[in-house]
Write a structure and sequence with these properties.
about 350 residues, alpha/beta, Aspartate Aminotransferase, domain 2, Aspartate Aminotransferase, domain 1, 2 domains, seven-stranded mixed beta sheet, three-stranded antiparallel beta sheet, 9 helices, about 35% helix, globular, binds 4'-deoxy-4'-aminopyridoxal-5'-phosphate, serine biosynthesis, PyrdxlP-dep_Trfase_small, pyridoxine biosynthesis, transferase, aminotransferase
């Protein structure tokens, strides 16, 4: 097999060691005679897999004891839809939800929430083309808001928070961390709810994580569907309905792999180095362009444009010929995007940097 480096934004590259282990265990998991895909989610084999995954994730993110980790389905957009349904019961009606609009994904959250509540966009980076996180001092927060929602890494725009927002009073902070969870240390205690689709930095599509502080489990609106009610899911240990068992298994292998690498602090150091390498190359001459303010540049998703966009197809074809795959930018913004998640080795970033230099030289 030829060596390739996969820069997809998600579903995305997974650690080779994890895929090898999954392949080895595909037909017979630990002598059970069954593939994980064939196991009952209520059997002792799968329960062991699930419990280990949860324990390892709790350790990796240092999730405090007063938080539940929910293994759900529905993706990032599913959580976007159910966060209001699960939290608006705690607010006096008509409720207001505060948002910070930093790019495409927080924009979608705003739109979704308008179905259920008044929405206050407390700050927006739209006017500058989503190239920065508005400074916290400029946010116009609503006293007594039902919650404040942020997307701490905008996958399309390549904008990442380099700070944890602060909230007023007991307003819960909700964060969509789909595209950078486990890539950097976070103080979970600063958040009321963290959610993330798994298909970027965790494992296969189909699994969605929600980390919810205990006191926020009981604030659902009566119309919240039962299977999407966090309290009901928590009480059933994420087995209210059949969970995405194989995706949970692979996620568990990824968690164990991250622990072997030294945990989140160790992977964060590598991620800082990978991002530095790539942004330095993009900034080196004006052949390439990334407009995001330095302090807001995402370590995970690096969108960039060629100065001469008529060369886009040539650039992508040359990249593909070198095994540098899935660099085409999101259709809504065009250009290129290199996603360099935890599982992207530094050699992959170096190979991309070499190609960037070579292409610009030609
Ligand atoms: N939020 C963010 C930050 C994302 O990057 C994505 C997917 N690209 C989503 C939400 C939507 O996730 P899903 O496709 O799993 O619904």
């Amino acid at each position: 097999m030829t060596q390739v480096f996969n820069f997809s934004a998600g579903p995305a590259v997974l650690p080779k060691a994890v895929l090898q282990q999954a392949a080895a265990e595909m037909l017979d998991w630990h002598g059970s005679g069954m593939s994980v895909m064939e196991m009952s989610h209520r059997g002792p084999e799968f329960i062991a897999i699930y419990e280990q995954a949860e324990t390892d994730l709790r350790e990796l993110l240092a999730v405090p004891v007063n938080y539940r980790i929910l293994f759900m389905q529905g993706g990032g957009l599913g959580q976007n839809a159910i966060v209001p349904l699960n939290l608006l019961g705690r607010a006096a009606q008509p409720a207001t939800i505060d948002f910070v609009h930093t790019g495409s994904w927080s924009g979608k959250s705003v739109k979704e929430a308008k179905r259920y509540a008044n929405v206050n966009v407390a700050a927006s980076a739209e006017a500058n083309g989503f190239t920065a996180v508005p400074p916290q001092e400029t946010w116009r927060l609503t006293p007594g808001a039902a919650y404040l929602h942020v997307c701490t890494n905008e996958t399309i725009d390549g904008v990442e928070f380099d700070f944890a927002p602060t909230v007023q009073g007991d307003v819960p902070l909700v964060a969509d961390m789909s595209s950078h969870i486990l890539s950097r240390s976070v103080d979970v205690a600063k958040y009321g709810v963290i959610f993330a689709g798994a298909q970027k930095n965790i494992g296969p599509a189909g699994l969605t994580l929600a980390i919810v502080r205990d006191d926020l489990l009981d604030s659902a609106l009566p119309i919240c569907p039962g299977v999407f009610n966090w309290r009901a899911v928590a009480d059933a240990d994420s087995m209210l309905n059949t969970p995405p068992t194989y995706a949970i298994y692979i996620a568990g292998l990824v968690f164990a792999h991250l622990k072997r690498l030294g945990g989140v602090a160790a992977i964060e150091r590598t991620n800082i180095e990978k991002a530095r390498l790539l942004y330095t190359a993009l900034d080196a001459d004006d052949f390439y362009r990334n407009r995001v303010a330095p302090e807001a540049r995402s370590r995970m998703n690096v969108p960039f444009y060629l100065r001469d966009e008529s060369l886009n197809d040539l650039f992508l074809a040359g990249a593909k010929a070198r095994g540098l795959l899935q660099l085409k930018g999101h259709k809504s913004v065009g250009g290129m995007r290199a996603s360099i998640y935890n599982a992207m080795p530094i050699e992959g970033v170096q190979a991309l940097v070499d190609y960037l230099n070579e292409f610009a030289g030609r």
